[in-house]
Design brief:
CATH class: Alpha Beta
Radius of gyration: 20 Å
CATH topology: TIM Barrel
Number of strands: 16
Number of helices: 15
CATH superfamily: Queuine tRNA-ribosyltransferase-like
Helix content: 40-55%
Shape: globular
Structural class: alpha/beta
CATH architecture: Alpha-Beta Barrel
Length: 371
């Protein structure tokens, strides 16, 4: 018996809402933060530690996995879930952003994009159809349409051309999903349009007419700045179907997450907690800590004695400082674990605040802590 994709809102507080996305591999409590498992791994973490942090879903990357080890190989080995030993839901992005940002050479056309691998220079083609085929070979539960990502800043004309192409690719992605996907998977459309209200409005309206199971907001957190991002969300989220999950791609800092939830966003992903951990930065309820700073060298206190995360609770700041300064692998592992756990604690705290009708007070406290 199949479990169809669905979304249910349990409580709202202003524009913030909490609920759950149901997939065949389990429920995703929203607001949700997805740790980024780009190449089939959340860097420096065991999957069981990711699960114990409170994460319900991971993100995998179509571009990286198609290049190495290859989507067909992953399919032969039983799919991405089995390959990486993760039994929960997986969302895959389309690969479009990485094609634009990492490829050595690329050429756009109506059909798709041809590009050279950043790994070995080999030539590849990515069309909406191929992107969906790869995502289905990987076996992801939630998939993204192929879209064109433009760098910031972009002129109105550049943003408009990319948005219109992304709309045409949305239709082709949806047709390909009917061919390659199944009833237990879902395909999201992606709203584009840069920081231009008219383009965001048009993109959201036309994608809504296509009736996707969920909607992503792309093209933000690319250099436009915090306030501009929030202004764009103010324009965009009200135009999307309220009964469908809203996913803001590639965001962000703890304050970004809180302010975006306040504007109706349900799902997030970002490399920030894992990348910061590998480079000696810890996220805590008191803000960011640079463990490399000399003041931590003799600090016997843990990151957070009240945390349920062993990395935050059971190791001193002095020990973490030593590990990072000595370039020991364990330092990156412990700080990454602590950060991923903190982000999940933050999402759980937001879900509770929304359910209890005190989200605005939580938001003001977050502005004080993380602003």
């Amino acid at each position: 018996m199949t479990t169809p994709f669905s979304f249910k809102i349990d409580a709202t507080d202003g524009k913030a809402r909490t609920g759950a996305v149901t997939t065949a591999r389990g429920k995703i409590r929203t607001p949700a933060f997805m740790p980024v498992g780009t190449a089939g791994t959340v860097k420096a973490m065991f999957t069981e530690h990711v699960r114990s942090s409170g994460a319900d879903i991971l993100l995998g990357n179509t571009y990286h996995l198609m290049l190495r080890p290859g989507a067909e190989r992953v399919a032969r080995l039983g799919g991405l879930h089995k390959f990486m030993n993760w039994d929960g839901p997986i969302l895959t992005d389309s690969g479009g952003f990485q094609v634009m940002s990492l490829s050595k050479l690329r050429k756009m056309s109506e059909q798709g994009v041809t590009f050279q691998s950043h790994i070995d220079g080999s030539k590849h083609e990515m069309s909406p159809e191929r992107s969906i085929e790869i995502q289905c070979l990987l076996g992801s539960d939630i998939q993204m349409q192929l879209d064109e990502c433009v760098a910031f800043p972009a002129t109105f004309e550049e943003a408009e051309d990319a948005m219109e192409l992304s709309l045409r690719w949305a239709e082709r992605s949806k047709a390909a999903f009917k061919k390659f996907g199944n009833d237990e998977q879902a395909l999201f459309g992606i709203v584009q349009g840069g920081v231009y209200p008219e383009l965001r409005d048009r993109s959201a309206a036309l994608l809504s007419e296509m009736d996707f199971p969920g909607y992503s907001i792309g093209g933000l957190a690319v250099g436009e700045g915090h306030e501009s991002m929030l202004e764009t969300l103010d324009i965009t989220t009200p135009k999307l179907p309220a009964n469908k999950p809203c996913y803001l791609m590639g965001v962000g800092t703890p304050l970004d997450l809180v302010e975006s939830v306040a504007r109706g966003v349900d799902m997030f992903d970002c490399v920030m907690p894992t990348r910061a951990g590998r480079h000696g930065t810890a996220y805590t309820w008191d803000g960011k800590l640079n463990i490399k700073n000399a003041k931590h060298a003799e600090d016997a206190n843990p990151l957070d004695p009240e945390s349920t995360c062993p990395a935050s609770r059971d190791y001193s700041r002095a020990y973490l400082h030593h590990l990072i300064k000595a370039n020991e692998y364990l330092g990156a592992m412990l700080l990454t674990w602590a950060n991923v756990h903190f982000y999940q604690d933050l999402m759980a705290a937001m879900r509770a605040a929304i359910s209890e009708g005190r989200f605005e007070a939580f938001r003001k406290d977050a502005q004080r802590r993380f602003g």
